[in-house]
Amino acid sequence: MKANYKNDWCERVSFEVCDAAKLPDKYRDSYGNDITHIYSYNKVMSKEDRKHISKILNQTNFKIMAWYFGPKDSAQSGLKRVKLVHKMQMQSTGKEKFTVYVYAKIQKYD
């Protein structure tokens, strides 16, 4: 079986930095495609901010997302159609440790 790895992978990746709460209906790249991999440092966000962001995430057909709330809190924020696939401890620049939760989108938004 031939690997699907491409040597030019780094040229095929783009990073988008944005204010997560000020976007329209979904997270998109500069070409209008849904963002596929999302990292959200949302540990300090309010419940209302998480609800607003969850609404946008529900409409974005991402593949993988990492953020700092577990399944129960994420569901209470309104996040839907995701499955927890991994969690791990993260060390902050200080001495604090947080758990980061990695979710996979399990159903596309139409």
What's the short story on this structure?
The chain is α+β, with helices and mostly antiparallel strands. It is 16% helix and 24% strand.
Structural notes for this entry:
A hairpin with a 5-residue loop joins strand 3 and strand 4 (97-105). By secondary structure, this protein is α+β, with helices and mostly antiparallel strands. 16% of the residues lie in helices and 24% in strands. The chain has 2 helices and 4 strands; from the N terminus they run βαβαββ.
Main attributes of the structure:
globular, Translation Initiation Factor IF3, 16% helix, 4 strands, 24% strand, 4-stranded mixed β-sheet, alpha+beta, 110 residues
Helix content: 10-25%
Kindly estimate the percentage of residues that lie in beta strands according to DSSP: 15-25%
Any guess at the CATH architecture?
2-Layer Sandwich
**For the terminal residues, how far apart are their CA atoms?**
33 Å
**H/E series:** EHEHEE
- The average pLDDT value, as a whole number, equals 85
Query: Could you list the spans in which at least 5 consecutive residues all have pLDDT below 50?
Result: none
In total, the number of strands is 4
Helix-strand layout with pairing:
Elements (H helix, E strand, L loop, with lengths): L36 E3 L7 H12 L5 E4 L3 H6 L5 E10 L5 E9 L5
Parallel strand pairs: 1-2
Antiparallel strand pairs: 2-4, 3-4
